[in-house]
Amino acid sequence: MEKKVVFSGVQPSGGLTIGNYIGAIKNWISLQDEYDCYYSIVDLHAITVPQVPKDLRKNTLEVLAIYLACGLDSEKSTIFIQSHVPAHAELTWVLNTISYMGQLSRMTQFKEKSKKSEENLNAGLFTYPVLMAADILLYQTELVPVGEDQKQHLELARDLAERFNNKYSPTFQVPEPLIKKEGARIMSLQNPESKMSKSDENENGYILILDKPEAIRRKIKRAVTDSIGEVKYNDEQLGIKNLINIYSVFSGDTIEEIVNRYEGIGYGKFKEDLAEVVVEGLRPIQERYNELINDKDYLEKVYREGAEKASYIANKTLRRVYRKVGFIQR
Predict the structure, then answer these.
(1) What would the mean pLDDT of 123-144 be, rounded to a whole number?
(2) What order of strands is seen across the sheet that includes strand 176-178?
(3) Which of 113, 219, 241, 271 is flagged as catalytic?
(4) Which tens digit of pLDDT belongs to each residue from 98-124?
(5) What is the mean pLDDT of the chain?
(6) Where in the chain is CATH 3.40.50.620?
(7) Nearest of 316, 320, 310, 326 to residue 83 by alpha carbon
(8) Is 195 a catalytic residue?
(9) Residue 151 annotated as catalytic
(10) Which CATH superfamily is domain 5-179+296-325 in?
(11) Is 301 a catalytic residue?
């Protein structure tokens, strides 16, 4: 039996957080043996907001090294840089012609980003969900690991696949969401009602995968809790609930085991222990990352071979699309 195809990617727009690791990359590792996985560093998406070119190049290689350090295997998965496969941009243009302005204007992330970036309200911000759809559809993707904040974009990809298939004849696989059965969404350490994000203006709100131990300890010590003073797992104590989720992922302990361990013990001891659990959990990733980031030849080999494999599949899809819309074969 052929393996089902999975596609996902992360933007190289700054350091990745433990939220990226827990919510995405850690999950991707477990999918490698069961599925045919395509994991991209989506640098085309990154330029919808202003980037410093040398930083973007640096961040792209850093994300690649983090992927590999966390456990993604270039022998099992196709790991590539999005801009190295021109078919992503080419398919986006075709899909733009069947995308409706009204549907794109209702995208929650566009509405949020347009409020933050009024001076940079570019067309790319408006149409980047179409590029995301092209990312998915190029590989005849069957399953897309998604969190709550990306479900709307996957729905657009499904709509565009069906719209194109109905207009021109079956061409695209209609993708389905791959929802994790377990695992929590990691929230900001300073505002536990918001998702942890590297774009948070308060650096104490997030922990980067590459943060030094002293920074991790400082950020966890400053994490928002409450006045109740008990380590309990409920929606009245969102700050502590978030910290327990982080503890559980990095320690392998269940929520119940953690709550029982800290019964009658204050937040100070809990935070101290959590900091060490996170520091030790990230240590092997950081050590492997430091080896990889200094081996530019190996990183280049991975992204070149990944782009070659990705291009082979992507171009097959693109040729079918071009033929169906009426373009002369090149």
Answers:
(1) 94
(2) 78-81, 36-41, 5-10, 143-145, 176-178
(3) 113
(4) 999 999 988 877 777 666 666 678 888
(5) 92
(6) 5-179+296-325
(7) 310
(8) yes
(9) no
(10) HUPs (3.40.50.620)
(11) no
